[in-house]
Amino acid sequence: MTPITMVEGRRIALSNLDKVLYPRTGFTKGEVLHYYATVADSLLAHIRDRPVSFLRYPDGPDGQLFFTKNPPPGTPAWVRTTPVPRSEDAGAEQVVVGDLPTLMWAANLVVEFHTPQWTAGRPAVADRIVFDLDPGPPATVVECCAAARWLRGRLAADGLDAYAKTSGSKGLHLAVPIEPTPSARVSAYAKTLAQEAEAALPGLVLHRMARALRPGKVFVDHSQNAAAKTTAAPYTLRARELPTVSAPVTWEEVEGCRTAADLVFLADDMAPRLARDGDLLAPLTDPARAGRLP
Questions:
Q1: According to the model, what pLDDT value does residue 214 have?
Q2: Alpha-carbon distance values, 58 to 7, 102, 237, 273 (Å)
Q3: Angstrom distance (rounded) from CA 143 to CA 41
Q4: Is the dihedral of CA 156, 162, 166, 171 positive or negative?
Q5: What angle do CA 74, 80, 85 make, to 5 degrees?
Q6: Beta-carbon count within 10 A of 289 CB
Q7: CATH architecture of 16-121+232-239+266-285
Q8: What is the rounded distance in angstroms from the CA atom of residue 120 to the CA atom of residue 24?
Q9: What are the DSSP calls for 73-126, one per residue?
Q10: pLDDT at 173
């Protein structure tokens, strides 16, 4: 029998809690749910007003993975959804994970959380810029950190503050809080900075995705600023070999990174990091910290 759990007055069926999702470490579905309950306050601060896309991996990272934007079949009536603009579907809606019951219901589906750079009330009006720094082997997150330092300085020259988190995979994400700005304008600005980074660091950085150019360099992916694109949310678990997290990091950690292992954080690392540092990305949710595009 599937156990029913009450979460803030909502009945949620939590299934297969002993199922091992990450075989290398024996990390179970129950531990996945415990992780999300532990980081709920910090995670919800970053996703609660945004339509969420799910990368589902119900049988673990080695099983079938599928990306969905539509509310999954069986979504409870109490789960909030919001209309989203899609050229192919005028009536499209997506889930908004705005409270602990919805978070635990979604976590029970075994998902990564991905969000756009805009909130549900203002589609295609971004309140942050993102750069996804993706290393082409043999480059690693070490090279991503070098690119991130350059981008941080360039953004600062325009009066913008950048904050870093691991992707939870191989690379690094930079996020910049900004005053609400049309996504098209943000995309153009981000592309310009990626091009400038390539010009300044030609042996390290690329602004184009061309696979033939990628080995040993860092692709500065600016495309996730487009209104239709999404980025892995802070604190989401990733469907990787280990239960890695897209973890906020300090600039001291970025500057001190010497090996790829220096910026790998697992689910069990997050509670002590939050207890020590709080939410390092809290400025992203503070309108007073938002900068203005030049």
A1: 83
A2: 22, 17, 13, 27
A3: 32
A4: negative
A5: 100
A6: 14
A7: Alpha-Beta Complex (3.90)
A8: 38
A9: TT--TTS-EEE---TT-TT-EEEE--SHHHHHHHHHT-EEEEE-SB-TTSTTEE
A10: 98
CATH 3.30.420.40 matches 125-228? no
| Alpha-carbon span 2 to 24, nearest angstrom | 26
Do the first three CATH levels of 16-121+232-239+266-285 and 125-228 match, i.e. the same topology?
Answer: no
Residue 2 has which token pair? 């599937």
The answer to whether 97 and 72 are in contact (CB under 8 A) is no
Distances (CA, A) of 90 to 116, 126, 211, 229: 18, 21, 34, 17
pLDDT of residue 277: 97
Q: Across the strands, what pairs with 231?
A: 115
And the tokens for 291?
């900068």
Residue listed under structure tokens 């001190």: 256
Contacts of 274 (CB under 8 A, 6+ apart): 39, 42
Going from N- to C-terminal start, the domains of the chain cover 16-121+232-239+266-285, 125-228
- Averaged over successive runs of 10 residues, the pLDDT of the chain (294 residues) comes to 84 95 97 98 98 97 95 95 79 94 98 98 96 97 98 98 98 98 98 98 90 88 97 98 98 98 98 98 97 96
Q: Would you give the end-to-end CA distance of the chain in angstroms? A: 58
- DSSP output for 244-281: BB--EE-HHHHHT--SGGGG--BHHHHHHHHHHH--TT
